[in-house]
Write a structure and sequence with these properties.
- The protein is mainly alpha-helical.
- The chain is about 90% helix and about 0% strand.
- The protein contains six helices and no strands.
- About 5% of the residues are buried.
Length: about 160
């Protein structure tokens, strides 16, 4: 029956669909290359920072920066995985986006908490905004993790049927 539907589609429509699919695939390939190069370059820069910090015995002072860079590499890799899945499936899956968002939220929380000692000096308003942001980010983590758990349970329930 699907062959009958395909044969009923006007050839111009088929050509447009193929052309758009080719454009989509080309963009995914380009994004994948850019993300891969970015991840490798950032990983190299992070290794250089760690090596230099170890050499000068200043790793403890650089640990926040190193952690931020590591989480950014992980975020880029998760984005790369999302592009790979989207390319392979020709559709969007929710889970990779939730994981990317979760990593981004955790990264932001770590950056804020690393700067926490400087916040009281910045004034009461800045400190209050940072605390509000930490609260909202924590709530986002609970929502994102709950969403991931619910999606996994739903997948498991569907696969057991």
């Amino acid at each position: 029956m699907s062959d009958q539907i395909k044969s009923d589609v006007h050839p111009a429509r088929q050509w447009v669909v193929r052309a758009l699919s080719l454009v989509e695939d080309s963009v995914y390939i380009g994004l994948g290359i850019v993300l891969a190069v970015s991840a490798v370059a950032l990983l190299g820069a992070t290794l250089k920072t760690v090596g230099y910090s170890l050499w000068t015995r200043s790793l403890t002072g650089q640990i926040t920066n190193v952690l931020d860079q590591i989480l950014l590499v992980l975020l880029i890799i998760e984005l790369l995985y999302t592009v790979q899945v989207s390319f392979r499936e020709h559709g969007l899956l929710v889970e990779p986006f939730l994981v990317v968002t979760l990593i981004a939220v955790i990264r932001r929380i770590l950056v804020i908490t690393a700067e926490l000692t400087k916040l009281p000096e910045s004034g009461q308003a800045v400190f209050q905004r940072a605390m509000l942001e930490l609260g909202l980010l924590s709530l986002m983590i609970l929502i994102l993790v709950s969403s991931l758990i619910l999606l996994q349970r739903q997948k498991k329930a569907i696969s057991t049927k």
